[in-house]
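Step 1: inspect the first sequence and its tokens.
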Amino acid sequence: QVQLVESGGGLVQAGDSLRLSCVTSGRTFSNHAMAWFRQAPGKEREFVAGIFWRSASTYYADSVKGRFTISRDDAKNTVYLQMNSLKPEDTAVYYCAAPGRPFYYSGWLNDAGYTYWGQGTQVTVSS
């Protein structure tokens, strides 16, 4: 059974930092592109950051560029999202996602290209 389990969310103040983790199990994801999405109340789910297999390159939404960093440690089956200089508009449930097969990429923003999703972790940033 494939699982993606996020953790690390919480309530912080504007300007603070958080590091989210996504631990995968049930299959190997070392050759999968991995991504973080988020969904704020009343809004559609949106792409946040993505990382190719073997950490070849990363991609960020404009709204988080320069503040967030995605990374992966395949030896630990974990993908991270380091979030710095948090803003109230970063408040959302954050999800980890992966495509259904290795070496597959259909565009970071296309959430239909992801087969596996975690349950999400809540991030709340107060002003």
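Step 2: inspect the second sequence and its tokens, then contrast the two.
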Amino acid sequence: QVQLVESGGGLVQAGGSLRLSCVASGRTFSSYAMGWFRQAPGKEREFVAAISWSGRNTYYADSVKGRFTASRDNAKNTVYLQMSSLKPEDTAVYYCAADRSLSQRLEIFMREYDYWGQGTQVTVSS
């Protein structure tokens, strides 16, 4: 079992930056690809970014490409999402998730992820 805890959310003005963190329990964290998703009020949860177990490979939704960067520190059991040039439409609850399948593919669908954090609120004011 893996437990995930996100932090780093908050209120920021448009154009600003935030870095989200997701700390995982369990010794198998370094074997799992990780994903970031977000859910805005009244909308479905959507894929934001994914990062391979090594951190060498990443994949982003078109809406955040060039503005968000996923990274990880396996020694700290932590994955990060650096968010820059934030827009009001980035306002959402952000979730990290772990894919325990050991697949080399970075997944964009929620159903492919096995463990989820509780989420952290990001609010971008205009």
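Step 3: confirm your contrast with the notes below.
DSSP finds no helices and eleven strands in the chain. The mean pLDDT is 96.
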